[in-house]
Amino acid sequence: MLTLYSMQRSGNSYKVRLALALLNTPYQAIEIDILRGESRTPDFLAKNPSGQVPLLEIEGGRYLAESNAILWFVALGTSLSPESRIERAEALQWMFFEQHALEPNIGAAYFWLALVKGGRVLQTHALEDWMERGYAALQVMENHLKTHDYFAARQLTIADIALYGYTHVAERCDFELDTFPAIRAWLKRVEDTPGFVSMDWRPDEVDSASIAAGA
Ligand SMILES: N[C@@H](CCC(=O)N[C@@H](CS)C(=O)NCC(=O)O)C(=O)O
What we know:
Largest sheet: 5 strands, mixed
Distance between the termini: 15 Å
CATH architecture of the largest domain: Up-down Bundle
Bound molecules: glutathione
CATH topology of the largest domain: Glutathione S-transferase Yfyf (Class Pi), Chain A, domain 2
Number of helices: 9
Shape: globular
Radius of gyration: 17 Å
Number of strands: 5
Strand order of the largest sheet: 4-3-1-2-5
Structural class: alpha/beta
Strand content: 5-15%
C-alpha cells in the first residue's frame, strides 16, 4: 500500500492525488499542514530532507519526493504515461517547463495570495515578477494548445496533470484566463476525464497521530 503525505490545498500534492484517482490506485493519505510547520519536523525531515510535500512512501520503507517524479512512478506502464521514446521525452519536456516556468510563478502567487493571510502585502514586489513570468508561461501553453488537445502523445498524460495542478488555480491568484481560450478548453477537457477529482476531494484520510500510535 502506498502512503501519500500531502496537503489538501497544495497544487503539487493535488497533482499526485489526481493521478492516483484517475488510475484508481488505492493509497493511504496523511495530511501535512505546511503552514503549521508539519513538513519541517525532525520526523518529516528524516523522510524528506527537503521538508516538502508531496512525499510518497513506497512499500519497503522507500520515500519519493518531487511531484513529477512521483507522477512517473505511479503512472509508468499505465495509459497516463506515453509509451514511445519521443513521447516520453515530450512529456518530460513539459514537466520540466511546469517546474521552471509555471509552478515557481503561479504556484508562488497562489500560495501567498490564496493560502497565507496578509500574503499580498508581504509579497508586493515579488508578485509583479510572478505575474509577468506566469503570464509568459500561460502564453507558451496557449500557443501549444491552439494546435494540440493535450501536451504530449495526443492524449491525457502526466504532463497534463502536472500542468493542470497550478493552471486551474490561476484565477484564484489574480491571473485572468479570458485571453487564453485554448487553455480554458483544455482545463475543461481534463475535468471531463472519467475519474477526475477536484483539489477539494479527499481520499479516506489517516491522521499522522494515529500512524505514530501504530493505529
Ligand atoms: N518541486 C517540488 C515542490 C514541492 C513544494 O514546493 N511543496 C510545498 C507545498 S506545494 C511545500 O511542501 N512547502 C513547504 C516548505 O517548503 O516548507 C514538487 O514538485 O514536489
